[in-house]
Specification:
Elements (H helix, E strand, L loop, with lengths): L2 H16 L3 H12 L8 H4 L14 H18 L4 H20 L26 H17 L6 H35 L4 E4 L5 E10 L2 E10 L3 E12 L12 H15 L1 H5 L2 E7 L5 E12 L2 E9 L7 E7 L7
Antiparallel strand pairs: 1-2, 2-3, 3-4, 5-6, 6-7, 7-8
Helix pairs in contact: 1-2, 1-5, 1-6, 1-7, 2-5, 4-5
């Protein structure tokens, strides 16, 4: 989840606990965003891995430490009960953990005692729908409505947002449950959520003697499989070759290892590839991530093979796949 949605959901949860009490609302919302402050630890995270992104700050231990500090410091800044400050900041931080665990990125809620991840795969790590709604909501609540409209209008907005996010998370969870059952029936091993809560990608990935085979299909909630299945296979290490490829199979085989080396995204996420030939006879292969996608495009590496047999030309960008998987 993005930072705006973390803060907004924590604000809404805090409102559900204490009502309209601005100091507590601010503390709960702040706690909802603070776990992502681990980005500031990037320079030392390699030396101390526990400080990595989605590390100790995304655990109950980290959240509780922040809540204890907040319970001590917050009453000095704005009058209030330290116990309530602790409660709203603990809940705000836990809401952040749950939202991240809800996505296709895992968090370790029991760190440092256990590395066991919370990983539901029910939403994208960054969903532009919820981000847009969260940004618009803050503008509405803190800009348009603040001291400008009757209090009842503010309450209506807050309750409307609560209903929206409650319904959104419920639809995502229901979809994940249904597609998870269908995944097992179809012999797939993983599910990748898309930006659309009604669309999912089911896939399986196998390493067969140094060749990676990926099979995937697009599943629409309530409709079943609407695209695929598709299969692509290529060796992790490019086979010995000379000149330019003469077929899509050769273009994919020769480009896969190069794409993995070029992009950490391709190497570390589920992916698939396509090959094309131009009117001049030049082959290109594009390897797309199935997880880093937005607006119908995917993070990808394009490998172009000059027809004269010169060295391949690699370029990373967001490309639009032929298959409408996203």
């Amino acid at each position: 989840m993005d930072l705006f949605t973390h803060v907004l959901v924590a604000y809404l949860v805090t409102f559900g606990i204490v009502g309209f009490q601005p100091s507590y609302l601010a503390a709960g919302a702040l706690a909802g965003g603070l776990p992502d402050a681990d980005a500031l630890f990037f320079p030392i995270a390699r030396r101390f891995p526990i400080l990595r992104h989605h590390g100790i700050t995304h655990s109950l231990t980290g959240v509780t430490i922040v809540a204890v500090v907040g319970a001590i410091v917050a009453p000095m800044l704005a009058p209030g009960s330290p116990y309530i400050y602790f409660l709203v900041m603990e809940v705000g931080g836990c809401a952040h953990i749950l939202q991240d665990g809800f996505t296709n990125f895992a968090v370790p809620p029991l760190l440092p005692f256990s590395n066991k991840p919370l990983h539901l795969d029910a939403d994208r790590a960054i969903n532009f729908l919820t981000m847009a709604i969260s940004i618009a909501s803050f503008y509405l609540l803190l800009g348009v409505e603040r001291n400008h409209v009757p209090f009842a209008w503010y309450l209506l907005t807050v309750y409307g947002l609560m209903a929206f996010f409650g319904a959104y998370f419920a639809i995502r969870l229901a979809g994940r449950y249904v597609v998870g059952r269908r995944m097992k029936d179809g012999g797939y091993s993983a599910v990748v959520p898309t930006g659309n809560p009604l669309n999912w990608v089911m896939l399986s990935e196998e390493n067969l003697g140094g060749r990676v085979r990926t099979r995937w299909a697009r599943y629409a909630f309530g409709r079943g499989i609407v695209d695929g299945p598709y299969t692509v296979e290529a060796p992790i290490e490019p086979p010995p070759h000379a000149g330019a490829p003469h077929s899509a199979e050769e273009a994919l085989d020769w480009s896969y290892g190069l794409a993995r080396r070029k992009s950490e995204v391709i190497e570390s996420t589920y992916h698939f590839g396509e090959a094309f030939v131009s009117a001049a006879g030049e082959w290109s292969a594009v390897w797309y991530s199935l997880e880093f996608t937005a607006f119908g495009r995917a993070s990808a590496v394009r490998v172009r093979f000059p027809p004269g047999g010169e060295s391949p030309v690699l370029k990373t960008a967001f490309y639009r796949p032929t298959h409408p998987a996203f």
